[in-house]
Automatic annotation (TrEMBL):
High-level lineage: Eukaryota, Metazoa, Ecdysozoa, Nematoda, Chromadorea
Protein name: G-protein coupled receptors family 1 profile domain-containing protein
Record field: transmembrane: 36-57, 69-86, 123-143, 155-176, 228-247, 274-295, 315-334
SUPFAM superfamilies xrefs: Family A G protein-coupled receptor-like
PANTHER family assigned to the protein according to its UniProt record, in alphabetical order: G-PROTEIN COUPLED RECEPTOR-RELATED, G-PROTEIN COUPLED RECEPTORS FAMILY 1 PROFILE DOMAIN-CONTAINING PROTEIN
Pfam families, A to Z: 7TM_GPCR_Srw
Keyword Ubl conjugation among record annotations: no
InterPro entries recorded: 7TM_GPCR_serpentine_rcpt_Srw, GPCR_Rhodpsn_7TM
Amino acid sequence: MSPPYSATDFDEYTKSSQSVLLNIGNYLSELSDNFIQFQLFFACIGFVVNIFHLTVLTRKSMRTSSINVIMIGISICDLCNMVFMIKYDIVMFSENECSPPKTYTNEIFNLWISAAEDTTRRLITWFGFLLASLRFFIVKNSLKPKYHHFSKPLFATKVMISMTIISVIMSVFYYGRGCFKVVDEWAPPKHCDGFPLNFTTPVYEVVIENMALSEDSPALKTLSIVDGLLKLIASCTLPIFTYLLMIEHRNAKNSKLQFSTRSRSSRSDHTTKLVILMTITFIISESPFGIIYFVEGIVLNSPGIVHLTTDLIDLFGIFLAINSITSCLICLVVSSQYRRAVEKLIGMKKKNSNSRSSRVNVTSCAVIGKSEMKI
């Protein structure tokens, strides 16, 4: 359960504004708590689907283009986020007022889990932006040989590694600012069973001793605003690249690029359609987060608003789980290369080959029969 809101969370606002914000906050808190069971359900499905999706994408036949490599990165981030989401939801279900506070080791572990989640959440937005922008650039310059290296897996790998390093540095800076110290002693309520007499355990909280790295410091405010702005820009430009991709796709289809074979052109069309559909799902699932993270970066000194944004992030988390499932479905429907990899993975190719050879034999027999009749 999320902690309840209080008037002290909104000290900087007037009484009437506090009342409105309290009602909104408590409603969002109750709504996000009710959504946890649905979120856990979709997260479990997303975990299984993404294991299968990642297994297909990492096959040798799929690691042939920069777009597929980016999709591997997105799938890895989705899989990590499903694990984090399942862990968070299970903890939320299992904890109650008789649950003791976490030990020092657990607090350290959870802190770095949060840092990893922050890193992968940021990377999903960045990789989605990279997917759409790179595909647009490739289609736009498909007849210029000097730009062909942008479609190679190595190029995407280098860009993604650079993005990952930047994202890790940002998360480490934010989550590595303080240290855990004992701030209180916890004793179980009288109605809780299973504890020794006079049992107490320390309560740990992150304490930031260096004021230059506190929530109100210019360095942290700048980092938070830049982080939120990057997420917002990436989310807001996705519709633009989707529109531009659709235009380029239509132009390429009308012109029937004379330097490409029909099969290659068809393969390129399928890749562009795949990116367009995936970008649309990213717009639906990621745009709210871009706005929320940007607002969160601006209002760091308002605990109530930060609490509100946290509840909104929890509430929209279900869309992340659903989006992680749709990526695999889109690939299955649109990409013939993906379907062939799936068939080969589950052993359907051999059956298809046998059926084709049987058809060839039947056809051959029919031809021989007709020849004999003519003789």
